[in-house]
Specification:
By secondary structure, the chain is an alpha+beta fold. Helices cover 27% and strands 24% of the residues. It is built from twelve helices and 23 strands. A nine-stranded antiparallel sheet has the order 13-19-18-17-16-15-14-23-22, sandwiched between helices. A four-stranded antiparallel sheet has the order 5-4-3-6, with no helix packed on it. The chain has a three-stranded antiparallel sheet with strand order 2-11-10, with no helix packed on it. The longest helix is centred in the C-terminal third of the chain and has 15 residues. The protein is globular, with a radius of gyration of 23 Å. It starts with 22 loop residues before the first strand and ends with a helix.
Length: 423
């Protein structure tokens, strides 16, 4: 499909023609030039989720990650500080780290033997006489800014700009909700990541994560087999809402439905008598507030551009090309809740594991969408559902019904703002 981006010198915003309040042009998912600009203006400018501090628990631990198309090494140095380093030797550009993870205080380039500490500093290089000195100011590249929130590690290639808490805005409260499900107020991502390659543009995944219109159709088979009540939460009769949290973040707030039943652990598909140790630990930690926390459950929130928290699991969306991305998924582990954590892993495997049914359903839809977008007409994708019945809640956030496309419109509003910003 021919690029519809206006030349840089043109007046007006080029994306005004491609992104409307009620529809999005199909080229947004298929144009390589748009994808290239996304990398520059979104993935390499805003805050992007990379990983979790619990993945490098000990000094000198490291794991390889991706930030956009960048190969990043997340390390914890001997003093306990976490770093995001670029996997490229400062000498001739060779990769210095091959393994997916491990424990090492240094990284040695296999090409010419240059060695770097796990904080990025150059330790040494062979045959120093060729340089006339023993020290060179050539260290590993690093992501300019790194901040964490409840252990969730975010990186930004922008040297300055809004801080992470400002970027998260109201979405920070949803991460708070997740942490409060732990008797110790902490979560870990230590169950291991599953990687799902998807032949679809990354934005199709981001849009879908808080789309409440599809579950009863796409996931009808799994709901029927398991007898799950989740499907009923996404209907026109549901009291749940879709909320635009600002900054491109959105959520499916299912708490109104769970409050009607007032049953602790119903959100998790179980009852308190089946996880008695967890319930006791929660009540010991939070007192009278514990039952409210266990009734309302975990968040279902999409944090722009790539972090999706789906109650019991976390997804990290990473682009590969205009028509391909990888969705990494893992079960949330609650510190101090071994009884619950076993169930978390089991449910996660059943939904997003290699033989899981939930993500397989979604992936089929993503790829069918991408294939359909190759058709020339109709040119536009419609996102008007619920537009005329949106309201503003008591906190000033736009909300729609459980099946409305409020979250998508919030995503595209932020996307357009970033893409039309000056370089």
């Amino acid at each position: 499909m021919t690029s519809l981006i206006e030349p840089a010198a043109a007046t007006g915003g080029p994306y005004d023609r491609l992104i409307r309040q009620d529809k999005v042009h199909g080229s947004m998912y298929t144009d390589p030039a748009i994808f290239a600009e996304e990398l520059r203006k979104i993935w390499y400018r805003t805050w992007v989720f990379v990983g979790h501090e619990s993945e490098v628990p000990q000094p000198n631990d490291y794991v390889r990650k991706r930030l956009g198309l960048q190969d990043v090494i997340m390390t914890r140095d001997r003093d306990g500080e976490v770093h995001l380093l670029l996997n490229r030797c400062a000498h001739r550009g060779n990769q210095v780290c091959d393994d997916a993870g491990g424990n090492s205080s240094t990284f040695r380039c296999p090409y010419h033997g240059w060695t770097f500490r796990n904080n990025g500093d150059l330790v040494g290089f062979p045959f120093f006489k060729g340089y006339g000195q023993r020290k060179l100011d050539l260290n590993l590249g690093r992501v300019p800014r790194m901040e964490t929130y409840h252990g969730f590690v975010f990186g930004s290639f922008a040297a300055d700009g809004p801080g992470l808490v400002e970027h998260l805005g109201a979405a920070a409260g949803e991460i708070d909700r997740l942490a409060r499900l732990s008797p110790e107020g902490q979560v870990e991502l230590t169950a291991g990541w599953l990687q799902h390659q998807t032949r679809a543009n990354w934005k199709l995944l981001a849009e879908n994560e808080t789309d409440g219109y599809h579950p009863q159709f796409v996931h009808g088979s799994i709901f029927g087999v398991t007898g799950s009540p989740i499907g009923a939460l996404y209907s026109d009769s549901s009291t749940a809402v879709t909320r635009d949290l600002g900054h491109g973040h959105s959520e499916n707030d299912l708490r109104p439905e769970f409050r009607k039943f007032a049953e602790p652990m119903r959100w998790f598909g179980t009852s308190e008598d089946r996880v008695p140790n967890y319930v006791a630990a929660m009540r010991d930690r939070y007192g009278e507030e514990a039952d409210k926390i266990m009734i309302e459950g975990g968040p279902h929130v999409m944090i722009f551009p790539n972090l999706f928290i789906a109650e019991i699991q976390v997804f990290n969306i990473q682009p590969v090309s205009v028509g391909e991305c990888i969705q990494n998924s893992t079960a949330v582990q609650m510190v101090g809740a071994p009884e619950l954590n076993q169930r978390m892993v089991s449910q996660c495997m059943g939904s997003v594991g290699p033989a899981g049914m939930l993500l397989a359903d979604d992936t089929e839809m993503y790829e069918r969408n991408q294939a359909g977008l190759e058709c020339l007409t109709p040119e536009w994708l419609d996102i008007r559902r619920g537009l005329k019945r949106e309201q503003v809640d008591e906190n000033g956030f736009t909300i729609g019904g459980a099946t409305d496309e409020t979250g998508m419109r919030g995503f595209w509003s932020q996307y357009k703002t970033l893409m039309e910003a000056q370089s």
